[in-house]
Amino acid sequence: MAWTYMLECCDGSYYVGSTTDLDRRMEEHASGFGAKYTSTRLPVTLVWCHESAKIDQSYALEKQVQGWSRAKRQALIHGRIDLLHGLSRKGYRKPRSSG
After folding, report:
1. How many C-beta atoms lie closer than 10 Å to residue 48's C-beta?
2. Residue 5 CB burial class (10 angstroms; 0-12, 13-18, ≥19)
3. What pLDDT score was predicted for residue 4?
4. pTM of the model
5. Which residues pair with 14 in a beta bridge?
6. What kind of fold does domain 2-67 have according to CATH?
7. Would strands 44-52 and 14-19 be described as parallel, antiparallel, or unpaired?
8. In contact, 16 and 5? CB cutoff 8 Å
9. In this structure, are residues 8 and 60 in contact, taking their beta carbons and an 8 Å threshold?
10. Distance (Å, rounded) from C-alpha 59 to C-alpha 49?
11. Which residue pairs, CB below 8 angstroms and at least 24 apart, start in 63-72?
12. Which of 22, 58, 68, 79 could lock onto 4 through a cystine, CB 3.0 to 4.6 A?
């Protein structure tokens, strides 16, 4: 089995990765040895994960989610799969503030 996962960093940014051992990878991130990006943004929190049959599937999903907007990633985190298509970069326009 393999995993695609998303972490929320202490600065509010998201990190997307894939692994065959989610527990070990979370320990690596928490100790500062998971990735250069997360090592400077500790602590990190696992906010979403998806299990796949093969690592190549998890890696492909990782690359897909890495290309998503923040709004689309947040919809995924909150389980709002119904919003994903509407939040695609081609069709999504950030609402203007009324100020």
Report:
1. 18
2. buried
3. 98
4. 0.86
5. 8
6. GIY-YIG endonuclease (3.40.1440)
7. unpaired
8. yes
9. no
10. 12
11. 65/4, 65/6, 65/16, 66/16, 70/14
12. 58
What integer is the mean pLDDT of 50-76? 96
The amino acid at residue 76 is: L
Tens digit of each residue's pLDDT (9 = 90 or more) over 5-56:
999 999 999 999 999 999 999 999 999 999 999 999 999 999 999 999 999 9
How far, in Å, are 1, 31, 60 from residue 18 at the CA level?
A: 11, 17, 9
Report the 10 Å Cβ neighbour count for 36. Answer: 8
Q: Quick one: pLDDT band at residue 87, thresholds 50, 70, 90? A: confident
Start and end residues for every CATH 3.40.1440.10 domain found in the chain:
2-67
